[in-house]
C-alpha cells in the first residue's frame, strides 16, 4: 500500500516521536490505523493526518490490521495467531470501542485477512493453508462466540485472499454442481461467495456454499504470488506468475491470456516469451525484487474491463527495498 504525504510534518504525525514501534497499518477513505508492538491501535484522520483515537483492548503485539468497508469495525491478528474483531465507534461520545470477537482457531502464522463487502464476515488464512470464515453478525448475537468455520484446506501458505459473489443456477435434479452452473456474476452479495486463495504453488477458487473448488491453470509455481478478481468484472481472475507474467482466467479455471511484462521491466528481447502457453514451463527469475509478487484490485469506481483479449495495464515499475 502506498500513501502520498504533502509534507514531512504529515509523515511525522503518523510516525510519532519514536517511543511507539508500529508493526503494521491499514488505510480506508477516512482513516489510517497503525498497530503497535504493545497491542495498541492508533487511529488518524486520513485527510489531515490528525491523531483521533487510541484503542488498547489488545494486549500483545499486532501483526496485521484491516479496517472494514463500513469503517466502524477492525480485524487484527497478533503474534500468537489470535484474531480480534473490534467495533470502533470513532468519534462517538456515548459508545467506546468494544471487543466483538476473539478467535483462536489458527495454530500457524496468519498470513491474510479479508472483509466481506457488507462488513458482516471476515476471512482469514494461515501458513499451513487453512482458510476460515468468521461471522461477525453471529458474534453480535452471542458475545465473543467464535462464529468460525473452516472453509478450505490449501496445499501451502496462503499469500492472498479475494472474494466475489456468484449467482449459481440450481439444478433441476439433485446432483453435484459443476462449473456450467455458474450463470452470472454480480456485485450484490448472494448465498454463493467465491473465495480466491493464492498459495505458494497455485491459485484456487472455492465455492463456500457448495464446498467445491477449481484450480486456475495447470502449471504450478513456487513463490509468493498473489491473485485477485477484477473489481468491476468478476468473471476475470488475475494471477501472478513467475517471469513477470500475469494470467487472466475465468472462474471455471481456464486461462484466457498470458500477459507478459518483461518488456515493461526493460528486459532484453531474448527474454520476451509473450506467446507462451499456460502449459509451457515458466522459468523462475533470478531477480525476485521485480517479479509480480501480489495483485490487488483497483478502486471500485475504476473503468470496466475492456473487451480485448489482452488487457493493457500500462508500464509496471519495480518496487522493493
Q: Would you write up a description of this structure?
A:
This protein has helices at residues 8-15, 136-141, and strands spanning 22-27, 31-36, 41-45, 50-55, 62-67, 73-78, 83-87, 98-103, 110-115, 121-126, 130-135, 148-153, 158-168, 182-186, 193-199, 203-207, 212-215, 227-230, 233-241, 245-249, 255-260. It is globular. The strands form five sheets. A five-stranded antiparallel sheet has the order 14-13-15-16-17, with no helix packed on it. Strands 1-2-3-4 form a four-stranded antiparallel sheet, covered by helices on one side. The relative contact order is 0.08. Mean pLDDT is 77; it is low at 172-190, 267-293 and 304-316. With 321 residues, it is mainly β. The protein is built from two helices and 21 strands.
| Oligomer classification | single chain
Shape: globular
Distance between the termini: 14 Å
Radius of gyration: 21 Å
Largest sheet: 5 strands, antiparallel
Mean pLDDT: 77
Structural class by secondary-structure content: mainly beta
Strand order of the largest sheet: 14-13-15-16-17
List how many beta strands DSSP finds.
21
What percent of residues adopt helix (DSSP H or I)?
Answer: under 10%
Number of H/I helices: 2
List unreliable stretches of 5+ residues: 172-190, 267-293, 304-316
Give, in order, the helices and strands.
HEEEEEEEEEEEHEEEEEEEEEE
Q: Give the DSSP E fraction (strand runs of 2 or more residues).
A: 35-45%
Amino acid at each position: 500500500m502506498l500513501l502520498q504525504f504533502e509534507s514531512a510534518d504529515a509523515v511525522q504525525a503518523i510516525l510519532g516521536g519514536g517511543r511507539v514501534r508500529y508493526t503494521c497499518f491499514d488505510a480506508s477513505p477516512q482513516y489510517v490505523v497503525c498497530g503497535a508492538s504493545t497491542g495498541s491501535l492508533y487511529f488518524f484522520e486520513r485527510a489531515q493526518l490528525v491523531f483521533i483515537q487510541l484503542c488498547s483492548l489488545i494486549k500483545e503485539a499486532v501483526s496485521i490490521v484491516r479496517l472494514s468497508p463500513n469503517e466502524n469495525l477492525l480485524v487484527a491478528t497478533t503474534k500468537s495467531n489470535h484474531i480480534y474483531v473490534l467495533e470502533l465507534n470513532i468519534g462517538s461520545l456515548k459508545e467506546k470501542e468494544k471487543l466483538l470477537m476473539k478467535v483462536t482457531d489458527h495454530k500457524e502464522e496468519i498470513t491474510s485477512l479479508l472483509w466481506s463487502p457488507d462488513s458482516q464476515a471476515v476471512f482469514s488464512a494461515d501458513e499451513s493453508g487453512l482458510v476460515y470464515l468468521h461471522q461477525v453478525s453471529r458474534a453480535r448475537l452471542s458475545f465473543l462466540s467464535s462464529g468460525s468455520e473452516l472453509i478450505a484446506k490449501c496445499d501451502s501458505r496462503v499469500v492472498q485472499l479475494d472474494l466475489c459473489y456468484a449467482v449459481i443456477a440450481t439444478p433441476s435434479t439433485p446432483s453435484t454442481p459443476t462449473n456450467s452452473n455458474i450463470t452470472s456474476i454480480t456485485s450484490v452479495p448472494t448465498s454463493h461467495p467465491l473465495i480466491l486463495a493464492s498459495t505458494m504453488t497455485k491459485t484456487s477458487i472455492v465455492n463456500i456454499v457448495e464446498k467445491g473448488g477449481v484450480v486456475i491453470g495447470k502449471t504450478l509455481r513456487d513463490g509468493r504470488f498473489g491473485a485477485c478478481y477484477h473489481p468491476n468484472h468478476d468473471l476475470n481472475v488475475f494471477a501472478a506468475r513467475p517471469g513477470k507474467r500475469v494470467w487472466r482466467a475465468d472462474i471455471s479455471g481456464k486461462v484466457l491470456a498470458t500477459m507478459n511484462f518483461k518488456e515493461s521491466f526493460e528486459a532484453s528481447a531474448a527474454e520476451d516469451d509473450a506467446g507462451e502457453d499456460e502449459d509451457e514451463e515458466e522459468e523462475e527469475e533470478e531477480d525476485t525484487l521485480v517479479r509480480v509478487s501480489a495483485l490487488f484490485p483497483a478502486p471500485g469506481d475504476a473503468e470496466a474491463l475492456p473487451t480485448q483479449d489482452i488487457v493493457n495495464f500500462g508500464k509496471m515499475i519495480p518496487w522493493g527495498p
